[in-house]
Write a structure and sequence with these properties.
alpha/beta; Immunoglobulin-like; TIM Barrel; six-stranded antiparallel beta sheet; globular; binds ligand H79
């Protein structure tokens, strides 16, 4: 695959405002239509759903600490015993149309759902295992109706698939003997079969999100990753994959030893955002949980639970640094979302309704990070540029100062009142001053500054 060097817009703005710093050039592994769409989406919803939702972080009446979806491992539960959860998985209130509506109203442009997490249980009726939705009282495919509903709402579908599998008898965490090798080779074929099944049965799927690649069986034998990548690109040209298809602990490694990138983008930001100095030069995506570290449903949450404004500001930060952001929900076993998640969906949706223009389809700021908030920018086809000033806090003087000449600014508008122009003035040669409304939005007040090119 070719590595392209795309310089993110020539820096035509003078550096008069000391709080701005220039952007770095961007490296892209791909720049075709599918990755542009992936990038433009910017905001996604991660959904972790599986048998762990039935247990809700408890086993035989006891709370098992650590992440709820890790229950089988953390609770040291034998696979056969854990599998009995399948007989209790009956999401009687599962309403894919409601899920899809929630996603659209929340402002996300894609949903990434766990088709199979580390536990090995499959949310679809797989030809290659009986450990799937058919073994539950629900008894029928959960994915198909969701894919259909999301597509009808205009929300893209991405599939999460765990390479690690705590149920499959041929899975090995290490390859120590010839028998291990044979078993792992069989497991590898099983994975390929399942992924082919998913991509052909649900042709709407645009991206695959791999995880659980850290066991030595897989990550010390990178030829598996290479073969898998080639196999999938052959089945579905254009498919997008995260770099966890390759080696690396949690996806923070972009390349193999020869410098060849794994997958199409960096998915190493798990429950964290890049620091100013560590923004990847490749496409990237961060995933965030509401509580500290719970992806699947846990009945009792402890510690700080993030609010919609906190998550929205993380989304803004990611967008300003040129990355995607996914918020994670772990639905209840009955197929509904807990109150905290519904509140977050509503809060984000409210802000996105007015401000999605400043997130989706934008790129990171070539201006860097000002003290009062973040900047994103949109480049129109004809080359004209709009800066979006996400104002999180009022600067001293209560005005925004930009390193621009008056002639460079065509107009300004507040996204919360888009039908009337917002005033701006010059303050010397290289400085445009924009006032702020009295009351800022509790998430961010966004001012669009359209530039003359
Ligand atoms: O699906 C969610 C998590 O369950 C999964 N990825 C997100 C999206 C995930 N869980 N843990 N990790 C990712 C990070 C891996 C941590 C590890 Fe380890 C540290 C793997 C190897 C060392 C802890 C110790 C877990 C296994 C051994």
């Amino acid at each position: 695959m070719m590595v392209l060097l795309t310089v993110a817009g020539a820096l035509t703005l003078a550096s008069a405002a000391d709080s701005f710093s220039p952007a770095k050039p961007k490296l892209a592994t791909r720049d075709d239509e599918p990755i542009r769409r992936w990038r433009a989406n910017r905001f996604g919803l991660f959904i972790h759903w599986g048998l762990y939702a039935v247990a809700g972080g408890e086993w035989r009446g006891k709370e098992i600490p650590s992440a709820a979806e890790w229950l089988q491992s953390s609770g040291k539960i034998p696979a056969a015993e854990y599998a009995s959860l399948a007989r209790q998985f009956n999401p009687t209130h599962y309403d894919p149309a409601a899920w899809a509506r929630m996603a659209r109203e929340m402002g996300v442009r894609y949903v990434t759902i766990t088709t199979k997490h580390h536990e090995g249980f499959c949310l679809w009726d797989s030809e290659f295992t009986d450990f799937d939705i058919v073994a539950t009282p629900h008894g029928r495919d959960l994915l198909g109706p969701l894919v259909k509903a999301l597509t009808a709402e205009g929300v893209d579908v991405h599939f999460y698939y765990s390479i690690l599998d705590w149920h499959h008898p041929d899975y090995r965490s290490a390859i120590l003997t010839d028998d291990d090798r044979l078993a792992y080779d069989r497991y590898f074929e099983f994975m390929k079969n399942q992924l082919r099944e998913l991509l052909t049965r649900y042709p709407q799927v645009r991206a695959l999100w791999f995880d659980g690649q850290w066991d030595s069986s897989y990550c010390e034998n990178p030829e598996y990753a290479r073969r898998l990548e080639e196999f999938l690109r052959e089945i579905k040209p254009g498919i997008i994959m995260n770099n966890r298809i390759g080696a690396g602990l949690i996806g923070n490694i972009d390349h193999d030893a020869t410098g060849r990138p794994f997958g199409d983008y960096n998915a190493g930001f798990e429950r964290l955002l890049p620091h100013a100095g560590s923004v990847p030069l490749y496409d990237w995506e961060a995933g965030m949980t509401l509580p500290e570290n719970q992806w699947g449903y846990r009945k009792v949450w402890s510690g700080h639970v993030k609010t919609a404004p906190e998550l929205a500001r993380m989304l803004i930060q990611c967008a300003s640094q040129g990355g995607n952001f996914m918020v994670n929900f772990g639905p209840k076993p009955d197929g509904t979302f807990r109150d905290e998640e519904q509140a977050v969906a509503r809060g984000l949706g409210q802000w996105m309704k007015q401000n999605s223009e400043a997130i989706c389809g934008t790129r990171g700021s070539t201006l860097g990070k000002p003290r009062w908030g973040f900047v994103t920018e949109r480049v129109a086809k004809e080359g004209s540029r709009t800066l979006y000033l996400h104002v999180l806090s009022k600067p001293a003087g209560k005005e925004i100062r930009l390193p621009l000449t008056l002639a460079q600014v065509r107009n300004c508008r507040l996204l919360s009142a888009p039908n009337r122009p917002w005033p701006f003035r010059a303050d010397g040669e290289q400085r445009v001053v924009i006032g702020l409304p009295d009351k800022l939005d509790p998430i961010a007040t966004v001012i669009a500054v359209e530039l003359n090119q």
